[in-house]
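Minutes, project huddle
Topic: does the predicted pose make sense with 2-deoxy-2-amino glucitol-6-phosphate bound?
PN asked that the exact inputs be recorded in the minutes so nobody has to dig through chat later. Recorded below.
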Amino acid sequence: MCGIVGYVGPQQAQSIILNGLKQLEYRGYDSAGLALLEQNGKIAVRRDAGKLANLQEMVKAAPIEGHIGIGHTRWATHGQPSQRNAHPHVSMNGRVVLVHNGIVENYAELREELLAEGIIFNSDTDSEVIVQMAERFIEAGYDFEHAVRESLQRLMGSNAVVVMNVDSPDRIICARLGNAGGIALGIGKGEMFLASDIPAILEYTRDMIFLENRQIATITQNGYQVTDLEGNPVETDIQNIPWDPISAVKGEYKHFMQKEIFEQPQSMINTLHSRVDFERGRLSIPDLNLTPELARRLKRLFIIACGTSYYAGLIGKYMIEEIARLPVEVEYGSEFRYYNPIVDEHSAVLAITQSGETADTLAASELARNHGATMWSIVNVIGSQSMRISDGYIAMQAGPEIGVASTKAFTTSLVDLYMLACVLGEARGIVSGESYRRLVNALARIPDLAGRVLDHDQEYQELANLFFKAQNFLFIGRGINYPVALEGALKLKEISYIHAEGYPAGEMKHGPIALIDESMPVLAVVTKDALYDKMVSQIEQARARGGIVIALATEGDQTIRQKADHVIYVPASPPLLAPIVNVIPLQLLSYHIAVRRGCDVDQPRNLAKSVTVE
Ligand code: AGP
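Predicted holo structure (tokens), as shared on screen:
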């Protein structure tokens, strides 16, 4: 989950690297650093523990001249967050410098081997074994590229590696092993960029190449060459990234999360764009590659994801089973990857992943492919590993999601899941004609309904002022709104650090109701649907035990006012699309509570935006 940036070209590298790291700070931030090859052929390093601001101060006090450099923001896996363990790491004799993302699973063995050869280590990180090995091969007579290839072939685990060498001052070598964070090469005019994530270099170029697993690239200001680990050149395709650089900055918002919550109507429109024809009531998702033969062959769909994306999958199960009558199993990527799933050519596996780089989801996807399943993904980051390994995909088209807490990617993926349910339902002959047209046209109002919810932001802020001191919170819902309760709880806990649990409302009487008292606020998702009456009785049970209930209800529902202590109203929406609208007040409530508590909303403690390690 670390952030990596590199540059080689006629410009001063320092400012380009710092600017890029700023765009990536959300990915990981225990420490930060950069290294340049100076004109005098030496490696100059600046690095420090803590936020990127510490590095910026350090560089301001002691700037570095140079046209080639690499930078890093770190989310610690091995070795405490400290100046000593901050990247970049320099080899013992000062010839090679490295930044790294991922985990060297056999680093202890490699470290022992190098220590036995007299290598002196300067850090407690796994990363350092790579740079020490590379220097050892160079000093044994290998050229730079060969030395790096030899070193990488010794590594086990998923790793993204970027190195420079004082004897080859015109080039940077980078490599991707396994599903660790990807590396994007940015192709400029007479200059080259590299980054672990698109926003870091998007303002300089939209033309990018994404390294695949076990590929190595050498970049110079004149261009690039990509090979496999054995040094054989490989074909690469240049992708043009449609995102605009402006969308990767906060603008008038206080936090990226706030901006991305308010971008949701637009991101829903973006994901519908060019796929839906409301005039004719038609949908088309060409990138999915759903053929009639495949539609006939499918007997089961597995949805694999993590965190918020997993909750989107739980909602997608209701949509797809209801509309397409296709059995759906939803599983955490971290679980699916370790069991022996009953997956075959009659199965499709759908990975839902904003980053497209989540290690558990990627590993589960690889397992499914190896069992012969068709591999689909709903993914936001263009060129990400999930997008590349899929037989078909639905690009969320939500634009960069920078805040660690996922918001617009969640609701956009729900729109995509609904579209998937419709195209599957039609291809399997379950829905057609007028009923199909009605399903498709139900999407037309969703962005507008989301916008109407956002208009009530002030209400959620006032509610946050009443509850920001809570130590615990319960979110309950039923049916398709049960995953909404789970997502509401996750949003609150991950940015405000309040312990929050989501629960199926019908389960309250089987234990959790013992928790209810005036210090345990209960947020009940009780919008009008077939389970409304059941939800109302759950609310009454909670209040009978002194619980404070916040009801999220449908506009016009006066009954609920007598049942709950506080009511948040949302506009009526079709039951299968209701989660898209119902989740927005929960996002804003969590956001305002976290702000009121003075939490770091965009960079919550211990978290990173893309979990590229196990
Ligand atoms: C959500 O707010 C969290 N940041 C986290 O649960 C996230 O959804 C999860 O890590 C999956 O990420 P992905 O969608 O990029 O795979």
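Observations noted during the meeting:
- The two ends are 11 Å apart (CA to CA).
- The mean pLDDT is 93.
No decisions taken; revisit at the next huddle.
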